[in-house]
Amino acid sequence: MRKSKFKPISQPEGDQVFSAPWHCELFALTISLYEKKVFNWEDWTNKLGNKLKNEPVSMADNLDYYYRKWLEALEEFVLHKGVTRLDDIKREVSIQMKQLRDDDH
Predict the structure, then answer these.
(1) 13 burial class (0-12, 13-18, 19+ CB within 10 angstroms)?
(2) Tell me, what DSSP letter sits at residue 53?
(3) Whose CA is closest to 49, among 66, 32, 62?
(4) Quick one: CA dihedral 54, 61, 71, 14, positive or negative?
């Protein structure tokens, strides 16, 4: 793998990489799509890097921002590659949000 032109994101102190369950799930989904050859790693890192380049972030400062940008990049990839449709993504988000609300009650 060739060296990326983007600066690495600093790690938070300690062993914590994911600060919320959805961060971990998003990471796992990304790895799964990569293993299924939906995209190659260089394309992925460039796409994510481009999402982050205008507003660099320290993982120690704002993991949610970082993973929201990660999600945006992944959504664009799967839509562009025809893996899914926007309506399907919206439907799944709606289902997940309903389950979260139901779990809170």
Answers:
(1) exposed
(2) T
(3) 66
(4) positive
> How far apart are the C-alpha atoms of 74 and 27, rounded to whole Å?
10
Identify the CA nearest to 71 among candidates 37, 35, 36, 20: 20
Tell which residue, 60, 62, 61, 73, has the closest CA to residue 27: 73
Tell me the domain boundaries of the chain.
21-104
Number of Cβ within 10 Å of residue 46's Cβ equals 15
User: Which one-letter amino acid corresponds to residue 45?
Assistant: T
What does the alpha-carbon distance between residue 48 and residue 83 come to, in Å, rounded to a whole number?
Answer: 18
Q: How many CB atoms lie within 10 A of CB 61?
A: 11
User: Rounded CA gap, 51 and 91, in Å?
Assistant: 24
Residues 30-86 pLDDT 10s: 999 899 898 899 999 999 999 888 776 665 567 888 888 899 999 888 888 888 888
**H-helix or E-strand spanning residue 26:** helix 21-35
Token pair recorded at residue 94:
């709606």
